[in-house]
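Weekly sync, protein design subgroup
Attendees: M.S., D.O., the rotation student, P.L. (late)

Item 1: inverse folding check
M.S. brought a backbone from last month's batch and wanted to see whether the design step gives back something sensible before we order anything. D.O. pointed out we never logged the input encoding, so this time it goes straight into the notes. Structure tokens as presented (303 positions):
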């Protein structure tokens, strides 16, 4: 870091202290990976109960990781888990959690107003050099950045589910993101052991822009009576090498999430056939059948 006494903060930030806002599946996964790679992590959510659940999730995911990584040395595996857990602290007060943060990653509800309020609030609390990143899957990062006085230090860090397993992170630069911020985010991603790709702040970035229309077309193909869910899933797994078929993957991602993303894009481009709705998807979501997390979506799951 080039230290300077000027008010200019256009510099490269080496990210050590990370604050993750949101202890859901994505937030907990990001916290886990950052803590596993020696970062000091503060995980923030609204209640201690949520945070307790998130810490439990991190621990059980670490056990799965360790079972493979330390298969012939379980003791070192236990030490590793303990060390990683020590790198994570929790806090229900976002203001207190950002006072020494180099990077804030928000992984909260996909609601622009709530994200803007959060970024606007944290902007006043966090040090000048702190970078703000969003893990949003489909909302414009620039709209969140505009709620802060630091749009040059805002960007996207889009992780994939399950975060500990998926090697990719999309690093999103808006038209205001400074090259130093992008570089810091790219370096952070590499320090996590992930592979970054650079994206523009466009709907769905790279992966979801291709993946979500693909999943929607699988649903519509099924609705047209041109294939059973099972055959479509087998087809894409064995014929295209996907680890999960589109129906399995939709259940895994969450049907409400797929619907939310598609509905948002259709509002912006009503005539784009890629964003056409699916009656079946709408019906399942309205019945609360949201996929794996609710134990029923296109398929049924046991706990
Ligand atoms: N934590 C730690 N380890 C995990 C894990 C987790 N949450 N999930 C899976 N694993 C590891 C474990 O080591 C597991 O071994 P275990 O059975 O001993 O615990 C190993 O993965 C294998 O898992 P499974 O046997 O359960 O199943 P698979 O071999 O199919 O692997 C998978 C699971 C990695 C999830 C694989 O199926 C896959 O890659 N699926 C596609 C996922 C994908 O496309 N994700 C992107 C979704 S889009 C998205 O996230 C963007 C958003 O914005 C919408």
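Designed sequence read out in the meeting:
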């Amino acid at each position: 870091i080039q230290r300077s006494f000027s008010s200019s903060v256009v510099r490269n930030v080496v990210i050590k202290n990370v604050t993750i806002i949101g202890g859901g599946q994505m937030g907990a996964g990001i916290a886990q990976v950052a803590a596993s790679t020696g970062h000091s992590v503060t995980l923030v959510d609204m209640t201690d109960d949520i945070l307790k659940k998130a810490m439990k999730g991190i621990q059980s995911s670490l056990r799965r990781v360790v079972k493979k990584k330390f298969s012939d040395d379980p003791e070192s595996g236990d030490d590793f888990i303990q060390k990683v857990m020590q790198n994570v602290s929790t806090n229900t007060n976002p203001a207190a959690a950002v006072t020494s943060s180099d990077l804030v990653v928000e992984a909260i509800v996909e609601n622009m107003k709530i994200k803007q309020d959060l970024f606007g609030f944290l902007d006043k609390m966090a040090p000048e050099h702190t970078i703000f990143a969003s893990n949003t899957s489909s909302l414009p990062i620039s709209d969140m950045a505009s709620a802060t006085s630091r749009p040059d230090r805002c960007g996207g860090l889009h992780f994939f589910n399950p975060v500990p397993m998926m090697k990719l992170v999309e690093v999103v630069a808006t038209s205001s993101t400074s090259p130093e911020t992008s570089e810091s985010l790219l370096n952070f991603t590499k320090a996590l052991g992930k592979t970054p790709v650079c994206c523009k702040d466009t709907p769905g970035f790279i992966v979801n822009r291709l993946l979500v229309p693909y999943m929607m077309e699988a649903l519509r193909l099924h609705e047209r009576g041109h294939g059973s869910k099972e055959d479509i899933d087998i087809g894409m797994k064995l014929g295209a090498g996907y680890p999960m078929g589109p129906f399995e993957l939709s259940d895994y991602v969450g049907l409400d999430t797929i619907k939310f993303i598609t509905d948002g894009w259709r509002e912006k481009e009503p005539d784009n056939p890629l964003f056409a709705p699916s009656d079946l998807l709408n019906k399942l979501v309205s019945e609360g059948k949201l996929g794996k997390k609710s134990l029923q979506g296109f398929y049924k799951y046991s706990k």
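Discussion: The mean pLDDT is 95. The radius of gyration is 20 Å.
Action: P.L. to compare against the previous round before Friday.
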